[in-house]
Structure to design on (686 residues):
């Protein structure tokens, strides 16, 4: 088994820097786009066989060191009794529209081992078939709940911030519901065979440090603490500017995933060298072609400086127009860099 | 004439902090929503009488210290020979779709005094009718050009970053075209009677400092320098985390508009106390109701500390669901705060 990713996440020495890409099992792969001609996104997500097959699809194109589960952050919504529709360019939408975030009463408690077994089964299939770690994931409470709001992303995030400010008790009920259920779901993924769980707080970067500290940090901390107690290796990914990074790190995670706006060395210092770091090439560098992408990847590796605990990734998900050949070239650059550093 | 805004922008002492709101003349006003039942957005924008009337509409609800022109960043596209459609939740879209940013050849040189006279005429009407400064505006080259790309905002911005990295010469041609035409248009707005011009780099916050320095700073600097030479007072608004703020400030502007994520005192130190600052209440605070909004406004005023050169505003545009009564309460808080500081 290739355990480079897991060893790097534990900050053990590795022969070379492990590499995977957020959204590697998706729209940038021609074989995936073929699948989508026949099947809806949510149908693929809900079928363990399809989800496992698509999760492993990247291996037909490039040699990543971990497989990130083909799933969606919104998957737990249906388990909680909500109907979900995926809209192009918008993301998951709850139907009928959520009538104000106050109605947490619409959420039904659920056992992820029953209601989300299709996810766990996909993980089991992957572990039988591949000698690579599987990365499961859940949304952080803030980012997950933004998908309960209606409208364009910027508007959703403003509505959620307003709700957290105006109704701290109602937000506490909502966020606490998700902390417990997401922890349960994440632990179930780990027990099904996932090597690590990534917690996606993809939109945390819209928060000022004070609001993050008061209304988001407690819930992300509670989630990550439950996972730590269960022995689950975690990556805490957030969009964050430099001043927010220490707070994201404070919430927990064996590793912290950082976006591209803070240079990796500056980010690592901000989160602390006692943590692993994942990132952080700009996804736009992949769109800019092989030469620019490889140059950008080398800058990231230089900034990591060969220190144990770096997992190479982008600072956000792969853009759908990313060319698999450019991704391959970036992986080759990361692999070669590791060999030369070890020599 | 109420010249508080202009004096604060020049960092002269003022009796109280001036206040206006980005998007104050728009969807949060019931009277505006009535107008929109009868007329399309672009029809209103293109008609000087309508644009002037809507620009002044906020005065029926709350006493702002400046009127920001009811217009759109994309207005100059049509003058350059492009067709534009406004899509809800997406923003302006160029039709037929821009076939790669390389085709700057599609842009026709234009004289804003002819092709955009409807904007200038709206400014002239406003100056005849109101004793308040009119704020004109243009997009910064980076933010404006993002609207030439297709797709959701995040995708547009990734495509534009990739283009800037991959094709620096083509980007130079495109950005230089806009620097010259935007400067010309902004100067024409000033000559028509605008008291100041705001340069909107609303999406600059997606750039890492290196890419901003190499591919964005030169063009924003060129634009702001042309305006400075023409004697036009300017506010340079960018979305920016703390590390990007000194670069935004370096590009120019008598004042720098900052978003809500960096506390105002920290932001002011980052841009330099020799510049005016505009901002920076989170627009979500307005959605959170009167008490939270007023509390947030007081925090911003405390951080400004009564130093000359602060213009109160939000850190981004007003959300469409903002309640005019809450906006009024915030304005009252800013006005009262100024009086108590002067006593």
């Amino acid at each position: 088994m290739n355990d480079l990713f897991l060893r790097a996440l534990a900050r053990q020495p590795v022969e070379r820097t492990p590499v995977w890409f957020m959204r590697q099992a998706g729209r940038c792969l021609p074989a995936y786009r073929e699948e989508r001609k026949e099947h809806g996104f949510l149908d693929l997500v809900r079928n363990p066989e399809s989800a496992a097959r698509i999760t492993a699809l990247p291996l037909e194109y490039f040699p990543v060191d971990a497989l990130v589960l083909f799933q969606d952050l919104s998957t737990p919504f249906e388990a909680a009794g909500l109907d979900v529709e995926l809209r192009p360019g918008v993301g998951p939408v709850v139907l009928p529209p959520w009538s104000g975030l106050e109605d947490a009463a619409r959420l039904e408690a659920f056992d992820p081992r029953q209601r989300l077994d299709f996810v766990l089964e996909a993980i089991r299939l992957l572990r039988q078939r591949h000698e690579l770690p599987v990365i499961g994931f859940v949304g952080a409470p803030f980012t997950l709940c933004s998908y309960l709001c209606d409208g364009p992303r910027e508007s959703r995030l403003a509505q959620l911030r307003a709700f957290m400010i105006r109704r701290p008790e109602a937000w506490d009920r909502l966020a606490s519901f998700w902390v417990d259920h997401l922890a349960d779901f994440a632990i179930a993924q780990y027990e099904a065979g996932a090597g690590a769980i990534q917690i996606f707080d993809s939109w945390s970067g819209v928060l000022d440090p004070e609001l993050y500290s008061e209304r988001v940090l407690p819930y992300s901390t509670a989630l990550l603490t439950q996972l730590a107690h269960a022995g689950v290796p975690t990556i805490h990914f957030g969009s964050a500017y430099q001043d927010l990074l220490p707070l994201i790190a404070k919430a927990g995670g064996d590793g912290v995933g950082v976006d591209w706006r803070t240079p990796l060395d500056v980010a690592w210092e901000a989160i602390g060298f006692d943590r692993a770091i994942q990132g952080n090439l700009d996804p736009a560098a992949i769109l800019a072609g092989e030469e620019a992408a490889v140059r950008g990847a080398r800058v990231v590796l230089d900034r990591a400086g060969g220190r144990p605990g770096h997992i190479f990734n982008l600072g956000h998900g792969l853009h759908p127009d990313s060319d698999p050949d450019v991704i391959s070239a970036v992986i080759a650059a990361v692999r070669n860099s590791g060999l030369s550093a070890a020599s």
